[in-house]
């Protein structure tokens, strides 16, 4: 099965083409955003580098979120369009689950996170079981100040994987149970997305596949709050 | 500009610049094979206007559904298409990105050329479904986002000779509707209410300096709002129908007169009107009357082609395709985009 994997959910943009046994092509950048300009050319380039054509792809795996709303929409739109028009399988995978794959060898919990501004992070809790990453706590939007006490109570080391350690590393390194990712483990890889995407159940309704924003649009949240009054 | 004549040109158009997810297949720029639109009006009504983030999310939900509907109804195969045309801008950036990236994915998947389209040129080309265009012409594009007078000397050539200096005409309609307590979208509601009233209140007309083809609606907007407040302060009952009729008369008079001045200045062979506000009944009748008096043929698209749709994007994209306009897979949406570049 040829899998095209697409992650444009955050600053990192990663695209890979894999088979069951091999990563045929992979491109990862962690410098500029502008995914709208760069993602589609990267996809075309990776498929070509793999020696394939669009029609040869059997399955498209996309990092569905959480992450930047715009980045998620670009990835989801392209993935949906390709899957629908080429009549291929579509699989959505949590962006945090993709990030957590880099902790597969870690003995303890893995807490990938993306900064969500104003003291908040998108995060979840994972651990490695028999070499596979499984979810322990659901992906969520949470204040870091509320999240850390929960992790402290786990009485096991926690590996923090994030591309936002510039901002959060100092605070996290004061936590006795914390271990911080290094430069390679902090960057999510589309080849990992492809590997887990190959095993998951494809979505049943490509048309209405949506990113996992994990947060309502602000206007929507305000409107709902007003209704509850 | 030279246009290659072909047997048949089939273009899939995609439009997501605001709150309408739309796709359409058009033949030779003149025949609509399909025209699918998912409107979000009901979704944004509770917010009193279009919320960009909400609109963008709904575009992702609708984009493949609408493309499928357009392709199925057109009875055209992917291999029959000549190109994919997509609105590059202007518009809400988050909304535009869904259409642009979706179009790029389709163009790549099927090995089709990609043609970027300026949204306003789409509105202008909606008129080509009514009648063949003759040049030079003057097009008045009026909607919630635009008030522009465009001079065209030939297919695919656009010169803006008048534009609004503040609010778009449609924006003024929405704000006055809110002042009068009418629900969003305000334009059609004002039109309906105005039919029960008379234009007896003398609201200002902004002609600007001598010979200017520009527009300004902020003064009129303030005048109407002040009038309403004064009446309320004096304890008078508001005659909302008269206010609506008078406001509409002011907008319409300026739009019509400036369009005619522009048409005479360039010796236009046709006047085109397009955009959401051209659905307004007073604008339509006054424009028809004025054009008839001057003996200049007038084209206004049927109502459903006045609001945002993708048939118009495919129609304009057909011209772009024939004159060789192409984008590669790095095409990006642009919230502000100059029409002269198209
Ligand atoms: Zn429009």
How would you describe the shape of chain A?
globular
Query: How many domains make up the 3D coordinates of chain A?
Result: 2
Please give the share of residues in helix of chain A.
25-40%
Radius of gyration of chain B: 20 Å
Largest sheet of chain A: 5 strands, mixed
CATH superfamily of the largest domain in chain A: ATPase, nucleotide binding domain
**Low-confidence runs of chain A:** none
Strand ordering within the main sheet of chain A? 3-2-1-4-5
The percent range for strand residues of chain A is 25-35%
Report the strand count of chain B.
10
Order of strands side by side in the largest beta sheet of chain B? 3-2-1-4-5
Bound molecules: zinc ion
Q: Hey, which two chains have the biggest interface?
A: A-B, 34 and 34 residues
Q: Output the structural class of chain B.
A: alpha/beta
End-to-end Cα distance of chain B, whole Å, is: 12 Å
Cα shape of chain B:
globular
CA radius of gyration of chain A is 18 Å
EC number (chain A): 2.3.1.234
Pfam families (chain A): TsaD
Organism (chain A): Sporolactobacillus shoreicorticis
Enzyme class (chain A): transferase
């Amino acid at each position: 099965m040829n899998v095209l994997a697409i992650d444009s959910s955050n600053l990192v943009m990663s695209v890979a083409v894999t088979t069951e046994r091999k990563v045929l092509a992979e491109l990862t950048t962690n410098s500029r955003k502008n995914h709208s300009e760069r993602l589609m050319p990267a996809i075309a380039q990776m498929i070509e580098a793999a020696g394939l054509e669009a029609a040869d792809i059997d399955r498209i795996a996309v990092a569905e979120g959480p992450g930047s709303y715009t980045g998620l929409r670009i990835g989801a739109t392209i993935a949906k369009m390709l899957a629908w028009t080429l009549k291929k399988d579509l699989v959505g995978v949590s962006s945090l689950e993709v990030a957590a794959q880099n902790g597969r060898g870690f003995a303890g919990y893995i807490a990938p996170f993306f900064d969500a501004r104003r003291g908040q992070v998108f995060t979840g809790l994972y651990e490695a079981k028999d070499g596979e990453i499984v979810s322990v706590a659901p992906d969520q939007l949470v204040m870091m100040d509320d999240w850390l006490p929960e992790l402290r109570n786990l009485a096991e080391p926690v590996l923090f994987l994030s591309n936002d350690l510039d901002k959060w590393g100092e605070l996290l390194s004061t936590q006795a149970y914390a271990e911080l990712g290094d430069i390679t483990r902090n960057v999510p890889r589309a080849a990992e997305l492809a590997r887990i995407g190959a095993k998951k159940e494809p979505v049943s309704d490509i048309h209405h596949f949506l990113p996992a924003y994990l947060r309502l649009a602000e206007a929507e949240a305000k409107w709902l709050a007003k209704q509850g009054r | 500009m030279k246009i290659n004549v072909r047997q048949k040109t089939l273009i899939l158009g995609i439009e997501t610049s605001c709150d309408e997810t739309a796709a359409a297949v058009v033949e030779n720029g003149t025949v609509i094979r399909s025209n699918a639109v998912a409107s979000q009006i009901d979704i944004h009504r509770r917010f009193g206007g279009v919320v960009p983030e909400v609109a963008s999310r709904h575009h992702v939900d609708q984009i493949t559904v609408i493309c499928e509907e357009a392709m199925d109804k057109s009875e055209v195969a992917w291999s029959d298409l000549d190109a994919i045309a997509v609105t590059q801008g202007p518009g809400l950036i988050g909304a535009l990105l869904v259409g642009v990236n979706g179009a790029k994915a389709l163009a790549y998947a099927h090995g089709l050329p990609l043609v970027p389209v300026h949204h306003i040129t789409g509105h202008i080309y909606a008129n080509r479904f009514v009648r063949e265009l003759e040049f030079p012409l003057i097009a008045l594009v009026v909607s919630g986002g635009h008030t522009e007078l465009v001079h065209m000397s030939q297919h695919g050539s656009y010169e803006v000779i008048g534009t609004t200096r503040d609010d778009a005409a449609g924006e003024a309609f929405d704000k006055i509707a809110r002042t009068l307590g009418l629900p969003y979208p305000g334009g059609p509601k004002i039109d309906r209410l105005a039919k029960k009233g008379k234009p007896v209140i003398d609201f200002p007309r902004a002609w600007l300096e001598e010979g200017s083809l520009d527009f300004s609606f902020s003064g009129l907007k303030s005048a109407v709002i002040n009038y309403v407040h004064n009446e309320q302060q004096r304890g008078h009952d508001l005659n909302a129908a008269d206010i609506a009729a008078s406001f509409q008369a002011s907008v319409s008079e300026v739009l019509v007169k400036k369009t005619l001045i522009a048409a005479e200045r360039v010796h236009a062979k046709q006047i085109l009107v397009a955009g959401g506000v051209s659905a307004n009944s007073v604008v339509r009748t006054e424009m028809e009357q004025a054009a008839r008096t001057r003996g200049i043929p007038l084209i206004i698209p049927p109502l459903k082609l006045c609001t945002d749709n993708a048939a118009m994007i495919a129609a304009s994209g057909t011209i772009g395709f024939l004159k060789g306009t192409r984008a590669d897979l790095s095409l990006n949406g642009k919230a502000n985009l100059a029409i002269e570049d198209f």
